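Deliverable D5.2: sample structural annotation.
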Amino acid sequence: MDRDRDRTQIPIADQRKIFGHPVGLYIIFFTEMWERFSYYGMRALLVLYMTKYLLSEADKGLDIFGYSYIRAFVEWFVRATGISDQLTTQIFSSQVYGLYTGFVYFTPLIGGALADQFWGQRRTVYAGAILMAIGHFLMAIESQFFVALLFLILGNGCFKPNTATQVGNLYEPGSPLRDRAYTIYYMGVNLGAFLSPLICGTLGQLWGWHYGFASAGVGMLLGLAIYHFGRRYLPPDTSPSRDTSPSKHDTAAKSAANSAATKTHFNRDEWLRVGALVFLCALNIVFWAIYEQQGNTLQLWADDKTDWNFFGWEMPSTWFQSFNSAFIFMFAPVLDRYWGWQNRKGSEPHAVSKMGIGCVLLGGSFIVMILAANLLPGQERGSVLWLVGSTWIYTIGELYLSPVGLSLVSKMSPPRIVSMMMGMWFLSSFVGNYLSGYIGSYYEIMSKEAFFTLLTGLGIAAGLVFFLVNGLLSRILSQPVEESLGGMGETARSVS
């Protein structure tokens, strides 16, 4: 099977170029688009599904596999940490949301290592897509809610780090196209995230929860089909234990080179880069803890405190979660041109500074929500423009941090552990996403003004730390990276 695949493989250099990029990039683009459609479609409904339906039905006697054990654990944790003496529906749903979205970003560390050491990127992506499709369809069965979440967590762990790694593998080290490729890839992520609340959210809120979850499963199957039928355009696996060369002579040479590479210890510069990237990932935690409130407490604000009536038609509140992606489409090209202009003038910030700017903007976006909370007491509903303004600001912050950090990890990680380091990037999102659930537990305990002030302070403080370490980390992450290309030579690349 591997030999057949190799014979039909179209080398990257021979692929037709679309806007300067190989066809393989667009295969990954549409695969990731549909995977993110499925993920964000399910996420758009998750908190509302729990707070408005599932948990109340469970309290009435609905049999959900594992519910009593998970509820008992969360109740103990909430009391032990002093969040509350009573486990309310909102607190429980926030904790489940944080645990689910957190573990979605923990398992990529395992999936990256699995691809690096055993299966290779392709097989691991296949496994992840199948597991996620099963999970989405299980979401339509109420009694299997927590089983479905488990399938989705495991599937995402296999899928997520390896599609991101394959983007980088389409380009020669040091290629200026790589950063642009990650921007295109990021647009695919956000196209799926934009469409999913409009489709899955509408079906779930207006037709029935199960229709929304099932539509997410269909999206995942579409992504799997695109990946499978476009597999000959994908880059060869970089796993040291797998051979992707058609020649027996090249097979032996590459196997020996990879074996030697895996036994080689990191040098000082590599250890410094790994340490710098791990530190940035740690700071990244705060960003995601705040950012992920859009699927948690901000979705509750959208549903309970926002007027969605437009000329007599009640718009589904889950459409709020499309704002973020819409702004990315609108402003990613603007920022790209702006950074290009700065680069020509020699004033473009280093990636570390950009990430700091992103955190400050994220924290500042919740100043808008502080104002909204002050002006909308009690049960009064306000204009959707409050959410529009806040979302616009934290979206600009996201563009400064997320694709920049993703590209930085791809470029500066030692080649032998690039998938594992990509998993480390997503591991920071694990902690941040769980903390989004933990912090969200205070949403109905604190006043809304105090809650949004907390988010503002955390974001700005994280940004200041980025600025403090910028000088040191910029020097470490601007050093050339010596990269072995299958043992056949070395080349250098650097962060621009």
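Annotation notes: The chain has one domain: 15-241+264-482. Strands lie at 17-18, 21-22, 309-310, 313-314, 481-484, 490-493.
The annotation will be released with the project's public dataset once the embargo ends.
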